Amino acid sequence: MKEKELLQLHMNKLNSEILPRVDFIRLDRSCNSQDTGYAVDVLKKLHEAFVEVYGTDDLGSNHGLVCLPALMRGKSTGRLSVGLVMLNARASGDHYNTYFFTPLGVIADGFGEITPKANAYLKQHFMAYEYMCTVNIKRDHHVDFDRVPRPVADILDRVHSELNSGVELNQRNQQPLL
Fold it and tell me: Cβ(89)–Cβ(139) under 8 Å?
């Protein structure tokens, strides 16, 4: 299947099977509390949807534009958000846009129109942010796995631990986050 067809299939799966079932207020609370179980569950579902479409969670440079499950963290606020990042895996992970899953719903940052309320929310919580994907991209120069903040590492470690218990999704050669 061609890159654009894979991306469209993946986006359709997200829009029809996963996003309608997400409780965005509960997700925000889970991301930013000690009880991160719901955030882990949503990230796992996003990750599994990606793997179902692409057949892997370890991307080399053979893929172009992809939409990856991620955990975003406001650099100045420490606030966390589950979401998706649109990257070009072929071009060292060039970042095109981010979909934040917020109490307001999905806020697409990086393209198109954004409501004043959504814009104010992003400015307040994610003026500058970093992201960590659940899918491994060998050449993503935006991610520094040596400096993952503890709350982010805890959630991502749980996601990968739960994904890897039982049936192995692929033969991953991923280094530990911390």
Answer: yes
Q: Using an 8 Å Cβ cutoff, are 36 and 18 in contact?
A: no
pTM for this entry: 0.84
Angle between helices 24-31 and 37-54 in degrees, nearest 10: 110
Domain boundaries, the chain: 3-158
Asked if residues 116 and 124 have their Cβ atoms less than 8 Å apart, the reply is no
What would the 3-class secondary structure string for the chain be?
CCHHHHHHHHHHHHHHHHHHHCCHHHHHHHHCCCCCHHHHHHHHHHHHHHHHHHCCCEECCCCCEEEEEEEEEECCCCCEEEEEEEEEHHHCCEEEEEEEEECCEEEEECCCCCCHHHHHHHHHHHCCEEEEECCEECCCCCCCHHHCCHHHHHHHHHHHHHHHCCCCCCCCCCCCCC
With a CB cutoff of 8 Å and minimum separation 6, the contacts of 160 are 134, 174
Per-residue pLDDT reduced to its tens digit, 122-164:
999 999 999 999 988 765 545 555 667 778 888 888 888 888 8
